[in-house]
Amino acid sequence: xxxxxxxxxxxxxxxxxxxxxxxxxxxxxxxxxxxxxxxxxxxxxxxxxxxxxxxxxxxxxxxxxxxxxxxxxxxxxxxxxxxxxxxxxxxxxxxxxxxxxxxxxxxxxxxxxxxxxxxxxxxxxxxxxxxxxxxxxxxxxxxxxxxxxxxxxxxxxxxxxxxxxxxxxxxxxxxxxxxxxxxxxxxxxxxxxxxxxxxxxxxxxxxxxxxxxxxxxxxxxxxxxxxxxxxxxxxxxxxxxxxxxxxxxxxxxxxxxxxxxxxxxxxxxxxxxxxxxxxxxxxxxxxxxxxxxxxxxxxxxxxxxxxxxxxxxxxxxxxxxxxxxxxxxxxxxxxxxxxxxxxxxxxxxxxxxxxxxxxxxxxxxxxxxxxxxxxxxxxxxxxxxxxxxxxxxxxxxxxxxxxxxxxxxxxxxxxxxxxxxxxxxxxxxxxxxxxxxxxxxxxxx
Length: 445
Ligand code: G6P
Ligand code: MN
Known about the structure:
Layout lengths: L1 E5 L6 H9 L9 E5 L3 H15 L7 E5 L2 H5 L4 E4 L5 H14 L9 H25 L4 E4 L4 H12 L3 E3 L3 H12 L8 E7 L2 E9 L2 E2 L1 H5 L2 H4 L3 H6 L1 H7 L2 E2 L4 H4 L1 H10 L4 H17 L5 H14 L3 H7 L13 H14 L3 E8 L12 E9 L2 E4 L7 H23 L2 H10 L6 H14 L8
The structure holds 6-O-phosphono-alpha-D-glucopyranose (G6P) and manganese (II) ion (MN).
The site of 6-O-phosphono-alpha-D-glucopyranose (G6P) has 8 residues, from helix 14.
């Protein structure tokens, strides 16, 4: 089985390859094709993968190419993990927004819109090529903003594109852990958009255990979301929000903390990864050791400003292991080998949330089998959550329309309608600021 990874020179590729190395079953991935625009990054990552595979006899064969069509032909699965504009682009997304007093983050608010506007045209081009060159392939989208990018691709690939994120899995795992339940045995009642969802229940043996958590301040305050949001707010909500809702519920504080930070997250990662790729290019360097050190530092500093504003302290050791690769591998196995499972994924709504149309991509538990991901019926969201979901989906739709038409006015509309952008004037200013720094936005007229 052939797996093509777009963004194959990306920093997180060794996580995926590490997960593949642990799979020895029949029908596993035997060939990995890495595609990237940057040959230097490809060879750096290929060196890490070679070290990872050193003692594994049946390790998937890795090849690398900068030719996209060649990479796609004959693929059974395509992982799309591209980063349009690189981390320099991410840093600019953050800076332009923060300079105008609004949130600069890669998936939420103004920064997420800018990243979406830059990424959608490229993602659509990829989707069209996949439809033409590998029509039977399944495309698993890792690229942020994951819900929006998945929806853009679904217009060309239908339900053959599935978006993934590890945040809901991490959240479910943390809640199960504090409740003393086995995450594998728990049914997690979660729904929303990517980075905008809520756990409303956690059922074990037919009983909802979430009320027990909400009623116990010590338990509730003992894990990441309890520390981030505060126990009182979680009890008021009667649900546990995805960590990214911290940017909504504590917008003023997060914007202030992000503005004061010495470097934005994107700038920090840009410098950190530049050092890694430089080091790995040197002959004789220990590529895997350098990668692992860099990865650990990235994990430890994830959302550090948010945790600081909330006084949440360090991350739990159990939360440092990531999880993207696990979700991706579980999804691929379920489809390729008909190993039925349930995963929280980004798929077309198809009536799951009645307030959204059938084609809107949402994040929801799905039954996955050889026929793909099938969203499971969930209880409706409460009014406050429905309001946010509808507002943000409307913004995503304006982003898709702007990418489609190239209309600058539509791009302004996308920014202006976002709940975290507080003025139409600011929206205009954001579009001016972003088009000035991003060559990838020159299409907006
Ligand atoms: C979480 C999010 C991802 C994000 C990742 C890394 O897992 O769900 O969407 O890409 O964190 O964030 P970072 O700030 O380290 O790039
Ligand atoms: Mn995510």
